[in-house]
Amino acid sequence: MPPEQETTTLAPNNSATTNRPESVRDQAQGSNTSKVKPSLDNNVISEQNQHQPQQPTTPSARFSILRQSLRPVTLKFEDVSYSISIQSQKNNKGCISRREPELTRKVLTGVTGVACPGELTAMLGPSGSGKTTLLTALAGRLAGKLSGTITYNGNPNSSSMKRKIGFVSQDDVLYPHLTVLETLTYAALLRLPKTLTREEKVQHVEMIITELGLTRCRDSRVGGGMALFRGISGGERKRVSIGQEMLVNPSLLFLDEPTSGLDSTTAQRIVSVLRGLARGGRTVVTTIHQPSSRLYRMFDKVVVLCDGCPIYSGRAGRVMDYLESVGYVPAFNFVNPADFLLDLANGIVADVKHYDQIDHHEDQASIKQSLISSHKKNLYPVLKEEIQRNNSDSVALTSGTPRSSDNQWTTSWWEQFKVLLKRGLQERRHESFSALKIFQVLSVSILSGLLWWHSDPSHIQDQVGLLFFFSIFWGFFPLFNAIFVFPMERPMLKKERSSGMYHLSSYYVARTVGDLPMELVLPTIFVTITYWMGGLKPSLVTFVLTLLIMLFNVLVSQGVGLALGAILMDVKQATTLSSVIMLVFLLAGGYYIHHMPSFIAWLKYISFSHYCYKLMVGVQYSVNEAYECGPGLHCRIRDFPAIKCLDLDNMWGDVAALTAMLVGYRVVAYLALRMGKLH
Ligand SMILES: Nc1ncnc2c1ncn2[C@@H]1O[C@H](COP(=O)(O)OP(=O)(O)OP(=O)(O)O)[C@@H](O)[C@H]1O
Ligand SMILES: [Mg+2]
């Protein structure tokens, strides 16, 4: 998209925010609200300044609920430190490991600051300096050894706060097969309050699309990620991610490198939007790599990190004065403050003017150290004072009556289920009945039908073999499909659950129900073809019962796969483990070994293939049925050695065992997800 075209879409609103900051401030002060184009920002701006509810006279006033949801939040962080454990190298060598004291590495050390509503705060620093870690910690999404205090309007993080925080991660986590419009619409349906009608939510999405200049690609698929097709551009994808967070009108918006990999015009557009959002009363914090001086001018505050320690924290415009006061003056007049800061954060003083206080033969480490100690001496006390001063304002902000809606889910369980089911079906429609899968199932069913073609009823061993093949093939196939489900969905689940979008149970049920059509249709086709080609009992009742047992088997096997995937959250590990498990089930299924040693015979009782096989043999051959076991000789089928040892007397017990497994494995999968490694 040519830059000039992109600019036009945003122009009415953002030209104001970008080029004429003072006019935006005027708007923020309520002097000019009626003249501005109705937009999300206007809603916010008027909310900030006119606390009285408005009559819905303008189009934007229809979204008055969004105004209500916005509460300015002051973010304060004091002495935030974070360490990670490092695995001892020695422990990994050799089989016998000595217990060694755990090694830790400090990633963040004593970072302090305040981010206020209406401000755009940028975090700068070299790669690996801890920007993402700090941003994640501030958003309340960092698990581990975090110390210090992080407060939102003076309160610690809570589940109601979680829904007021927007977080745009560095890597865009989006469903590739949905279009831009679908992606944003589903987010709106899940995240916007139930008091808005569906039409209002859709209208709101349209507003965001226009606001972010995504009109041209609104019907294009997102693409990228794991999908093999290319979709919208990187910058557009980033804007879709931002749009998803803007939808809920977050009071606090965190963004991790929203401009990385973008051209300077698009980067400028994104930062303009962020600044516009901040001016609307939100607190916006972003990390950024290499901002141009044009971008740098748009920041209100900057926090500069060097090896996890702050070297500057305060107003963006005063950074050069501060550096001068501690002895670092650039050699050129028109240096980009961001470049100068990053050089210093790397301990490089090549462009620093000769200045008496600096020994230019200092090594990089001592330059960094001097900047860290200067911050501690000069800026830290000022920041502490500002935090104290802000405390009284926060009390005033939080003293209002808490809304009862604050702690509630924005949508009902049933609504979440419906939206998630529809979204899942839409996202996976291409894979559900993909030609490859249909070919796979059809070819195996026709091949096995030909191999067992009209098998003679007197060849019991062959027929029993076909039934065992049914149970094993449809034990493996759904299990391996299900293993991938949760490890692949993990980033999306983590992102959406972190922002309190839905109940885990509604997601879980929607996901498993969404997979059912494919899981059940393919085995039905398979059994229908192979059963009749293979010459099994030509009875409709027996066929239907065989099919039902097979579908039961498929559901249990899917449950095992889901549980393995959810527990391990690693496709490779889960695939390896499941092949071992299926091999054990195959061997213990009762077809290959008829007389297992008693100390290991219990294995067959945990094998769902064993129960399925038994049930299928049970319905295929009735109690008194006979077969020709020799010339003119008729024997009872149930006395055939391979069938006799199966003990077919307690078929209801087998059904009960399969039912217990069907429920049990799914409950295990759910619990594993709830307690597991999402974070
Ligand atoms: N869970 C972790 N395991 C191992 N190392 C970690 C972990 N979290 C953070 N680190 C380390 O902490 C340091 C800071 O990481 P972080 O991702 O915050 O850096 P960054 O400033 O965002 O870098 P970049 O600009 O490259 O994104 C890095 O050296 C990183 O390797
Ligand atoms: Mg990072």
UniProtKB/TrEMBL annotation:
Database matches in PROSITE patterns: ABC_TRANSPORTER_1, ABC_TRANSPORTER_2
Any single GO CC term annotated in Swiss-Prot or TrEMBL for this entry: plasma membrane
Domain of life: Eukaryota
Transmembrane segments: 435-454, 466-487, 508-534, 540-567, 574-593, 655-673
Family: Belongs to the ABC transporter superfamily. ABCG family. Eye pigment precursor importer (TC 3.A.1.204) subfamily.
PANTHER family given in the database record: ABC TRANSPORTER G FAMILY MEMBER 21, ABC TRANSPORTER G FAMILY MEMBER 28
Protein name: ABC transporter domain-containing protein
Annotated source species: Crotalaria pallida
